[in-house]
Design brief:
The structure is a single chain. This protein has 123 residues and is an all-beta fold. It has no helices and eleven strands.
Length: 123
């Protein structure tokens, strides 16, 4: 079973940057569509961005489209989420998810999930 491992979360001041990583030791992420979701306290989990096996990117949250960038490095078997100009409203647990098929902004559209990494944006 595919196991996803997120890393790179932490505490950052408003306006700062973080890069999240998603890895799957022993598996080839290039065979899967990989998405980043996030869940803020008291809110539903929402899809943020997804990258398909061909590299096509889908962005689902208007407020992050000019600040967050998803990418994949198949040589390193890792998918990244570069987050710039972070705001307090970006505070959430960020999850990496994989789909055997196509990208989806919905939880039930993804097949495998990581445990999440906490991003806290605060001064």
């Amino acid at each position: 079973q595919l196991q996803l491992v997120e890393s790179g979360g932490g505490l950052v001041q408003p306006g700062g940057s973080l890069r999240l990583s998603c890895a799957a030791p022993g598996f080839t992420l290039g065979y899967y569509a990989i998405a980043w979701f996030r869940q803020a306290p008291g809110k539903e989990r929402e899809g943020v961005s997804c990258i398909g096996t061909s590299g096509v990117i889908s962005n689902y949250v208007d407020s992050v489209k000019d600040r967050f960038t998803i990418s994949r490095d198949n040589a390193k078997n890792t998918v990244y989420l570069q987050m710039n100009s972070l705001k307090s409203e970006d505070t959430a647990v960020y999850y990496c998810a994989a789909a055997v098929g196509q990208c989806s902004p919905f939880r039930n559209g993804m097949d495998f999930w990581g445990e999440g990494t906490l991003v806290t944006v605060s001064s």
